Amino acid sequence: TKEPEVALKWIYKFNPLHGFLAEGANACGSWAKWCCVCHAAQRRIACLPEVERSKIDFFLTEDCCESKLAKNTSSPGFVVDATPSRNTTLAWQPGVGFVELPQE
């Protein structure tokens, strides 16, 4: 994920779990490596001070590698993601629409 630092601060404030998952996706190289992404987020969450951890500690019980959040390619309902990868980040700007964020 290529969110700028200011966006990550906002994410951590209002949706901290997504922030830890985004960090995990960076560390693992891709959101597609869900088992790795999930474990990375769990390690970060487990090390938080109790006050912060208590808000998202429910995620510590997630079985990452057997997760319902992971893409199960052997499932009869699995749909291959044919979306082309991109090396840019887009953001919604009210009154303008989607804009490409500058690369850092």
Short key terms for the protein model shown above:
104 residues, mainly alpha, two-stranded antiparallel ribbon
What does this structure look like?
The chain is globular, with a radius of gyration of 16 Å. The chain is built from four helices and two strands. The mean pLDDT is 80. The two termini are 12 Å apart. The chain has 104 residues and is mainly α. Strands 1-2 form a two-stranded antiparallel ribbon.
% residues in beta strands: 5-15%
Q: N- to C-terminal separation?
A: 12 Å
Strand order of the largest sheet: 1-2
Mean pLDDT: 80
The structural class is mainly alpha
Number of strands: 2
- Kindly report the oligomeric state of this protein: single chain
What is the H/E order?
A: HHHHEE
Shape: globular
- Annotation field: number of helices: 4
Largest sheet: 2 strands, antiparallel
The low-confidence parts are: none
Helix content: 25-40%
Radius of gyration: 16 Å
